[in-house]
Amino acid sequence: MRRLFSHPSLAIGLIATLSFLAIGVLSLVWTPFPIEQINIPRRFLGITPEHWLGTDNLGRDMASLVMSGTWTSFLVAAIAVIIGMGVGVPLGLAAAAWGGPVEWLVLRLSDFIFAFPAIIVAILITALVGPGASNAIVAIGIFNIPVFARVARGGALSVATLDFVAAGRLAGLGNAMIAWRHLLPNIMSLLIVQGTIQMSLGILSEAGLSYIGLGTQPPATSLGLMLKDAQGLFLIHPWLTLVPGMAIVLIVIALNIAGDGLRDALDPRLRQENPNVLA
Amino acid sequence: MSLLEVSGLSIRFGANEVVSGMSFAIERGERFGIIGESGSGKTLTSLAIMGLLPDGAAMEGTIMLDGARLPRLEREMARLRGKRIGMVFQEPMTALNPLMRVRNQIAEAIRLNIEDSETQVEVPRLLDEVGLELQHGDRFPHQLSGGQRQRVMIAIALASRPDMLIADEPTSALDLITQRKVLDLIAEICARRQMALLFISHDLKAVARLCTRVAVMHRGKLVETGEARQVFSAPQQDYTQKLVAASRFEVRPQDRPAIGRTLLEVDGVTLDYRQNGFLFWAAKPLRAVDAVRFSVAQGECLALVGPSGCGKTTLAKIIVGLDRATVGAVRLEGVSYHGSDLPKALRRDISLVFQDPFGSFNPRLTIGDSLGEPLRLEPGLTQADVKARLIEAVQAVGLHEEMLDRYPHEFSGGQRQRLAIARALVTRPKLLVLDEPVSALDVSVRGEVLALLARLQAEFGLTYLIISHDLDMVAAMADRVLVMEAGKIVEEGRPEQIFAAPQHRLTRDLVAARLPDIGAAPSSP
Question: Closest partner residue to B373 among A168, A275, A276, by Cβ?
C-alpha cells in the first residue's frame, strides 16, 4: 500500500477519481434538490447560495444534475468494463493457452467486433429494443470485449514463454488450469491498468451516446444528456454547457492519471526496487 | 602516470550504496580485469568511467584520465567517450541499430570522431581487423551471428582509435567456441594497438586468459587486486579463495549405486519445425532434431553437449513430454511415447530442471504451491502426505521447510535453483533432465549446486540427463557424453576419452575452445 502512494500521480488520480465516485454515490441518497423537479420560474439562475451551480432551462438544480449524471457515467462505464473483462479476458486467455484454431477464432472475432464502433452497436440495439442507459452499457461493453481479449492474449503470450508455465505443463496441468493458475495472476496488473483506461473511454462513450439520444433518457440524467439539453442555449447561457463538459473532462483526466500511476506502480519492469539489477 | 586512475569511487542509489571506495589504476597498454558476481557493482563501475550512470545514481570520488579529471559537461564527455575510450557491451543485438547496415554504423563512429576521415578506406580496414569479410559490412545486424555482431561492436569501439577499451561481459551471450574466438581477438587487438583494456566478467577463466592484472569485487567493495597469476594461484582473501575453488569443478566421487539396466531409450527421434519466411529457408522445414538414437541406463549420468541451437534443449523437451517428435519414439522402461503424449502415469517418473532459476517459479504463488504442483500427478495423496513430501524435498536440497510459505522473489539465484531441483524431486522421479542447471548461476554457487546434484544421485539412485555447453562441468559430472551438432549426435564416449582424443571436428573445436585452467599464465597472443 505504501508503494502505491509513493507515486504522486497515482495518489492524485486515485483521490480525484474516488471523490468523483463519492459524489456520484452520494447522489443516490441525497441531492440538494430532486433532479426531476421542474421549476420554470427559477430557471437560468446563476450561482446562488441555494443553487450552487445555478439552474438549467427547466429550473432544475445543476449541482444535483451533475451529481446524478456523474453516477450514471460511472455506473455505465464500470458495468461496461465488467462485461468487457468478463467476456474478453477468458477469450484472450483461451487464445493464448490453446493456440491454433482457438486463437484464430478469437482474433477474427475481435477483429469483427472492432470493425463496429460503439455508436454503430448502440444504433443497432436502439433499433431493436429502444434507447436507454442499459443499451449504452451493452453497446460499450461489447466494444470493450475485443480490447480486453487482445490485452489478455498479449500479456499471456509473453508470460507463457516462461519456464514456470512449462513446469506447470510437466505437472500435468491442462490448458484451463495453466491459464487460471499461471497466466491470469501474472497479467492482472495489465488488466487493471487497461480497466481504468477503458473506464475513462466508457465515460466518454456514454456521454457521446446520451448526447445523440441513444443513451440515458429523461427524467434520469447523465453528463452527456445535460450537454445535449444545453447545446441550443450555448450562446445565451454557456454556463449550462460548461458545467457538465468540465465534469466529463475532469473525470476522464482523473481516471487517466490514476491509470498511468497504476501502470507505474504495478509494472515490475518499470519498478526499480533493487538498483543491483543493473550490475 | 597511469592512463586511468579511479580513486575512492562510490556510487549510491538513494541510501543504498552499491559501490563503495573503489580505487584502482590502469597503465597504458595494460590489460586489467574486474571479476565479480552479479550485483557486485562491476558494471556500474564501468558505466561511471564512461559517464553513463543511470538516473538516480549519485557518484563520489574521482576518475582521472591521463591525469585530468573527467569533464562534467555531457558534451565534452561525449567527445571523450568516442575518442579516448571505446566500449563493448554484453548483448550486441541490442547495442546495434537494427535498421542500419553495419558498414554505415562503423562509418558513423569514424566520422563522429576523426575529422576528414576516409571512411571508404577505414571501414574495410576495421572489418578486416576484427576478422570479418567485406560483404558482412553490407548486412543488417539480424543477418549476422552473435559472434559476428560482437566483432562489429569491437570494430565500432576501435573506430576512434581509443587509448582504452572497456569490455563488459562481451562473451557471456556467446557460445563456447565463439567466446574463445572473440576473447582471442580482443587480446590480439589490444596487443597490436598497445591499447589498455578494462575487462569485466564473472568468468574467472576468461579474465585469466586475457588480463595481466585483476581486481576482485564483492558487494560493491574491492576485495583483492594484484597480478593475475598471483591472485589466481595464491588468493589472499577468503572470498577470492572461494571463487577460485568454485571455478574448478571438483565433484568428489561418491558411492553410487551401480549403473543398471536401460531406463530410457530414444529411438530415431526427429523433429521438424515448419517455418514461414525466415531468412533463406523460407519454405523448407527446419530439422531441429535429426534421427537421434541413444539410451540412458538406471543410475547413469549422461551429458549432452553441443553449441547453442544444436537442438539439445528441443530433444530434452521431447523426452520430458513438452514437445512432440515428428518421427521416432522414446521408450521409458519399455513404454513408448512420442513426446507430449507421455502417459500421465509416467509423467511423475521424469522431471525437468530449467536453466533460468528466475523464470521457473510463478512469482504469484508461494514456493510451497509451486513445489506441490507436480504432486497432482499422484492422486490419492492427503493434505498431510503432500506437506510431508514437500518438507522431504526441501530438506533433501538443504533448505529449510519454513521457506515453503515464502514467495520466489525472496530467494537468491542459487536458492531458487535448489528449490527447482526440489520441485523436480517431489514426485520421486527416476530420470531427472537438467537443462544447463548451473549456467545461469554465479560462479561461487555453481559448485554447491553440482555437489548437491551428485549427493542426491548417490542418495536416491537418480538417473541424470544433463544438457550443457560447459565442458568443465560435464567432465566433472558425467559418466558418458554425447556431442550434438545440428540435430545429430556426432560423437559419444566417456568424458576422459572424448576430451583427450576428440574425433569429430565439432568436438575438437569445443575442446580447443576450452579456456585454460586458471592459475596458469595468460598466454600472449
Answer: A168
Cβ-defined contact of B370 to A167 (cutoff 8 Å)? yes
Q: Which domains does chain A have, with CATH numbers?
A: 2-28+54-271 (1.10.3720.10)
Q: Is B160 helix (H, G, I), strand (E, B) or coil?
A: coil
Query: Could you report the per-residue pLDDT of B459-485, keeping only the tens digit for each?
Result: 888 899 999 888 888 888 888 999 988
Give the Cα separation of A72 and A68 in Å (integer). Answer: 6
Q: Do A186 and B363 touch (CB under 8 A)?
A: yes
**Residue holding cell 503432500?**
B386
Q: Give the chain A residue whose CA is nearest to the CA of B90.
A: A279
Helix (H) or strand (E) holding B7: strand B4-13
Q: A186 vs B364: CB contact, 8 Å cut-off?
A: yes
Q: DSSP letter at B295?
A: E
- Asked if the ipTM is above 0.90, the reply is no
In a domain, B511, yes or no: no
> How far is the alpha carbon of A161 from chain B, nearest alpha carbon, in Å?
9
- Give the range of the structural domain holding residue B80, as residue numbers without chain letter: 4-247
Q: What is the pLDDT of residue A275?
A: 36
Whether the CA torsion B514, B517, B518, B519 is positive or negative: it is negative
What's the number of domains chain B is made of?
A: 1
- Name the pairing type of β-strands B463-468 and B301-305: parallel
pLDDT digit string, tens, across residues B328-341: 889 988 888 888 88
B299 half-sphere exposure, CB direction, 13 A CA radius: 12
Q: Shortest Cα distance from B422 to chain A (angstroms)?
A: 13
Tell me the CATH number at B42: 3.40.50.300
pTM summary value: 0.80
Instruction: Tell whether B156 is covered by a domain.
Output: yes
